[in-house]
Write a structure and sequence with these properties.
The chain has helices spanning 13-63, 75-80, and strands spanning 117-118, 127-129, 137-139. It is mostly helical. The chain has one domain (45-156). It has a 3-stranded mixed sheet with strand order 1-2-3, with helices on one face. Strand 2 and strand 3 (137-139) form a beta hairpin. It is elongated, with a radius of gyration of 27 Å. The N and C termini lie far apart (75 Å).
Length: 157
């Protein structure tokens, strides 16, 4: 029995269900918007990392008399350590570099997170270096991996 004058406080089951449904509707609207923002951030990181890598290759080339890094197997060492005028590891004489502290990770695609540089698409590397290619360094992503926002292939940036 309730004492006279006391009021029972609390929420009914219907009120709680209504609140849970409202929170579910808000989540259904917000989560896809946040995931699109995340994708845009990854794409921006790709563009930024490519700019860093390409600038490092340009600086190497400028200091080494127009010579590009030797190959995909030596580019990481040539960009992240001190070298001589030929691009070999520095021992004596004029010292060049380093041009990068570390190779940035690939922020998109199946090889996301890889910090290695390979020679051809399909290598187990995050980035591809090709002296004959106009861009020199690009993302190691197959043509099927594209930006959901722009439809552009990640390896075409």
């Amino acid at each position: 029995m309730q004492a006279t004058g006391s009021i029972r406080r609390g929420f009914s089951l219907i009120e709680l269900v209504i609140v849970v449904v409202i929170i579910g509707i808000i989540a259904a609207i917000a989560i896809p918007r946040m995931s699109r923002g995340s994708q845009g951030a990854q794409e921006s990181a790709l563009v930024g990392n490519l700019a860093v890598l390409r600038n490092a290759v340009d600086m190497f080339s400028n200091e080494h008399g127009g010579t590009l890094p030797t190959s995909a197997t030596t580019i990481t060492t040539q960009l992240t350590t001190e070298t001589d005028v030929t691009g070999a590891a520095w021992t004596t004489g004029p010292k060049y570099g380093p041009y990068l502290r570390d190779v940035p990770p690939l922020p998109v695609g199946a090889k996301q997170g890889k910090t290695t540089i390979g020679a051809a698409l399909g290598d187990d590397a995050g980035w591809i270096y090709d002296k004959t290619h106009a861009k020199l360094i690009f993302a190691n992503c197959p043509n099927t991996e594209t930006s959901p926002q722009t439809g552009k292939m990640y390896n075409a940036y």
